[in-house]
Inverse folding.
């Protein structure tokens, strides 16, 4: 089940969302390390390592990686999957909040995502990279704001492939449920590395909780 489109506001140009898309794509292709050794150095320098923050809480570098890691990806499929979700769901949240507040919101929920992962795995030395934490915040906001929007998804069943339209509340609730189940399995089995499930959970909850605050602030102005 892969989302490919949703209902968008006509005549609205979400240039901040396009800016985030372009920044992620640019960083991946311009800074993509050519060798395995260079990749390891790159990820360890600019990826978010929970241990750096919990063991050295007074060092600025660890906190800066919360933001640099949001624009790094571990491979082309990692980038493509994240950008697909940002492309589909981000524009409506930008419409709801306005350009500037959406810009701030994206980074705030990205911080919430990082906090979720750090709280669960505070001693991890594995670099965390990817925009999925912040994008999860966008999904949480979308669930609260547009639960009845119809989302077009590619549905696979054995050899049958169809495009069907499903309410966003179904798609995003299933997505969040998968993150919670996978995160619980990850912890219960004592696994480390791989997907940062709790960054997804932390970002999603942050977006769901904070979007009304950002929207109300926008309306007061």
């Amino acid at each position: 089940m892969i989302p490919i489109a949703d209902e968008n506001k006509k005549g609205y140009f979400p240039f901040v969302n396009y800016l985030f898309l372009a920044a992620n794509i640019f960083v991946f292709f311009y800074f993509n390390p050519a060798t395995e050794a260079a990749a390891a150095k790159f990820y360890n320098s600019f990826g978010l390592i929970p241990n750096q923050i919990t063991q050295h809480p007074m060092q600025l570098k660890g906190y800066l990686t919360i933001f640099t890691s949001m624009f790094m990806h571990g491979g082309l499929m990692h980038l493509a999957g994240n950008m697909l979700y940002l492309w589909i769901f981000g524009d409506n949240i930008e419409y709801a909040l306005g350009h500037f507040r959406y810009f701030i919101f994206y980074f705030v929920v990205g911080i919430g995502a990082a906090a979720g992962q750090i709280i669960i795995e505070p001693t991890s030395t594995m670099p965390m990279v990817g925009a999925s934490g912040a994008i999860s915040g966008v999904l949480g906001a979308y669930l609260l704001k547009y639960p009845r929007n119809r989302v077009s998804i590619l549905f696979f069943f054995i050899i049958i492939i169809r495009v069907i339209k499903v309410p966003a509340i179904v798609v995003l609730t299933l997505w969040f449920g998968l993150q919670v189940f996978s995160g619980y399995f990850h912890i219960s089995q004592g696994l480390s590395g791989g997907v940062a499930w709790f960054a997804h959970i932390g970002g999603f909850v942050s977006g769901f909780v904070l979007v009304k605050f950002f929207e109300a602030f926008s309306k007061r102005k």
Summary: Residues 2 and 73 are 20 Å apart (CA to CA). The first helix runs from residue 15 to 31. The chain has a mean pLDDT of 93.
